[in-house]
Amino acid sequence: xxxxxxxxxxxxxxxxxxTAAAWEEHQKLNRKxxxxxxxxxxxxxxxxxxxxxxxxxxxxxxSSPGDCSAWIGLFDAAAFDWCRGxxxxxxxxxxxxxxxxxxxxxxxxxxxxxxxxxxxxxLSIDTGSLLGGRGAGASPDYCVSQRLRVQDGAxxxxxxxxxxxxxxxxxxxxxxxxxxxxxxxGRAAPPGISRAGAAAGGARRACRAGGRGGGxx
Length: 217
Known about the structure:
Elements: H1 15-29, H2 31-34, E1 41-49, E2 54-59, E3 71-76, E4 93-96, E5 103-108, E6 119-126, E7 147-151, E8 154-159, E9 165-166, H3 195-210
Antiparallel strand pairs: 1-2, 1-9, 2-5, 3-4, 3-6, 6-7, 7-8
């Protein structure tokens, strides 16, 4: 007595089962993106510098910056709070990124530093016509470099860490209980949380883990 009649016991799916199934589906949906040789993130970082010149390493995972009329902008770091998801302000200097490749290096010459007020600055890629020009939205939509500490038109120091931005998911998962698939982490956003909200949470976690976007180490 006490046993289940008929078909026997039903084994309940565990949270681990759901996670594994979501990850498997994520890999199938985004197979092309996951196999990209340069990854799935827009990134920009100072790889070397002198007092008057920067060498920037960048990645552009979709199309190419030249085809999309992309550009690199220099922004006053005091004019916006990346850590709280703020959109970028207007650039103070910019340089076209005209390469036909998905990754490379570009020099930021001294003439683009002359006349700047003393302070700290960030560099960021605007993707031009790709994805509506990432960088117009909240901070998870755009990558930032380390901060440049500038005085009298010269670079005194590079501080903090660069932060990349993930290529947007190609489409949303159809299942309402799974929400959307995050191309960077393979996890669904919790019910009731928008993609933008979840991404902003990721930016805040990055700030806590590694300092401000382009912030102090």
